[in-house]
Amino acid sequence: MNTELFIARRFSFDKEGKKLMSRSIVRLSVISISLSIAVMIITLAVVTGFKKEIRNKVVGFGSHIQILNFDANNSYESIPISSNQDFLPSIKSIPGIRHIQVFATKPGIIKADKENQGVFVKGVGPDYDWTFFNQNMIKGNSFKVTDSAATNEVILSEKLASMLRLDIGDEFPMFFFDERPRGRRFKISGLFTTSLEEFDRQFILADIKHIQKLYNWNDNQISGFELLIDGFKDLDIITYLVRDIAGYHFLDDGSRLKVLSIEDKYPQIFQWLGLLDMNVLVILVLMIVVAVVNMISGLIILILDRTNTIGLLKAVGANNRSMRKIFMYQALYLILKGLVIGNMLALAICFIQERFQLLKLNQSSYFIDYVPVNLTWLIVIFTNLGSLFIIFLSMLIPTLVILKIDPVKTLRYN
After folding, report:
1. Cα(131)–Cα(101) distance, rounded to whole angstroms?
2. 173: helix, coil or strand?
3. Domain total in the chain
4. Is residue 41 part of a domain?
5. Residue 53, domain extent
6. 94, 241 Cβ separation under 8 angstroms
7. Where on the phi/psi map is residue 63: left (φ > 0), alpha (ψ -120 to 50), or beta?
8. How far apart are CA 83 and CA 222, in angstroms?
9. Does pTM top 0.85 for this prediction?
10. 280-308 pLDDT, tens per residue?
């Protein structure tokens, strides 16, 4: 029989113990742990959810990795490369690469009634993965690209359509400027919305054949390749492997190719997302400190409230190590109680937010109109284990008070 555990249970559950002055302090300690663990879980769920949502939407517009002409810049004016590259089989064999597709881009101006808007047309081929835009389509459908005739159908965002007073089925002219202005007439087949306002009001997806004709390219000339991968966590290593294969590849005209990850293409967005990690770290440290301080205070009060009992147990032969174990067991019970309550609170809040999206954000500032939640068992498990270890380990400090308690003095004044 574990004597220390038995005594700790009696301390925790007997009715007399509940009437001691430590009752309020103990409750405060449990509440502190509950709120701390709840705040930590919610913070991690919200931040990881926010980063995941923004990251997926940016990737939806630009893929994970792009292979371009080395001389291409960020103006969306393209320098062509051939779609027939001998390194493609090697890249397709890299573990983690899910899909490879061709694309071409060109800037243009939409003219609709009295409204004009500069946009970037992204030409896509028959191999394009429509998953992202189909998930964000709110009206109509994506168009079908074939190897034969070019389709005049396009998709654009609801935001852009509203600015131009256009809707599904409407036709509009678009003008492109090179040596001379050239026009194309397109028909809207679908409207999407991603809440990334900067992207929504700029991008239009069309058949790649239009871009090739506007540039006077042949059917094998493209702006580049887009690579989609299975997991974002593997982006750096896969980019390195692709760059090792294609980044040092020379074209027939002597030019080279370059490999850009989505983080290289939009560094300002991903640097901003990276700053959130520091905020999370500060919150986690503060919550742990609050829980530890309150728990230490509660355990000290608990020990002082049991001074007479400690003196009596020491008088009958209990040593300091056994006495410390008793209060460590009692502290563990209080910590676990706080963790259970905190987890229930965090899970309830995360479930409600994920289901009903009650908490909203300013879309123009945060690229999304609600607070996203990405609650995983990994977050819950590691937050609980880490908190339990740190808080429980810190309980060794207040139990040092037991070493100062003299059984003779406590029993003399009892």
Report:
1. 13
2. strand
3. 2
4. yes
5. 3-57+269-412
6. yes
7. left
8. 6
9. yes
10. 999 999 999 999 998 998 888 888 888 88
Give the pair of three-digit tokens for residue 173: 């002219």
**Amino acid identity at 29:** S
Measured CA to CA, the distance from residue 128 to residue 123 in angstroms comes to 10
Task: Say whether both 246 and 299 belong to one domain.
Answer: no
Q: Residue 248 burial by CB count (10 A; 0-12/13-18/19+): exposed, middle or buried? A: exposed
Nearest to 168 by CA among 141, 131, 195: 141
How far apart CA 271 and CA 256 sit, in angstroms, is 28
Tokens describing residue 81:
């490369």
**Residue with more model confidence, 10 or 52:** 52
Element (H, E) at 112: strand 97-112
- For 230, the token pair is 């299975």
Terminal CA-CA length for the chain: 30
Beta strands in 57-96 (DSSP E): 65-69, 81-82
Q: For the CA atoms of 323, 329, 334, 336, what is the dihedral angle to 10 degrees?
A: 160
Q: How far apart are CA 109 and CA 120, in angstroms?
A: 8
In contact, 34 and 341? CB cutoff 8 Å: yes
Q: DSSP secondary-structure letter at 275?
A: H
